[in-house]
Amino acid sequence: MIRTLLASAALATLAMPAFAGAEAEALIASTATRISDPAKGHQAFSQSIDVPTVARFTLGKYANRISDDERQRFTAAFDNFLTRSFRKHNDDFANSKVEVIGSTDRSATDSIVETRVTPADGDEKTVRWRVVERSGEWKVVDVEVLGLWLAIEQRAQIAAIMDKPRATIDDAIDALNS
After folding, report:
1. Closest by alpha carbon to 140, among 38, 29, 39, 64?
2. Number of structural domains, the chain?
3. Boundaries of domain holding 69
4. What's the whole-model pTM score?
5. What is the pLDDT of residues 132-156, one digit of tens each?
6. Which residues contact 117 (CB under 8 A, 6 or more apart)?
7. What would the DSSP string read from start to end of 48-84?
8. Which of 62, 70, 120, 147 makes the best surface tag, with the fewest CB within 10 Å?
């Protein structure tokens, strides 16, 4: 009986997934350091985000209702939107101290990393980053600041546009570009 119990425990340990935390935290720590560089912050931010995945998520139920060309145009507009948003809020990160506080693993390939961002003015903010691993590479798929998750918020806004009668993907693209 004890042998069976030990064997079961050993098998359960082997079947448990690896935790994402350490790799996810390392990605955010590295990205955060690079983002705080006023000259190169945007590039670091762009390289760390899985824009096609986030854009597809943002489209929600409409992702499968549009053509590949429309999806590509939306993704490009979404990438430009993210770039403008980062530049608009660049001061929140430029020359800031970004400290990884910890992480919560949702699975072996999905983690929420919590950071404390302290700008020069000392107005500390908590920023959470959802990171996922696909094909051996970790990427950011959402960022939460002041209680709002960017991708989730954008998804609601795009749905509100696309749910209107006779709305097209061009309406959603126009909203991202304005």
Report:
1. 29
2. 1
3. 20-177
4. 0.75
5. 998 888 888 998 888 889 899 999 9
6. 32, 92, 93, 96, 97, 98, 124, 125, 126, 127
7. HB-HHHHHHHHHGGGGGSS-HHHHHHHHHHHHHHHHH
8. 147
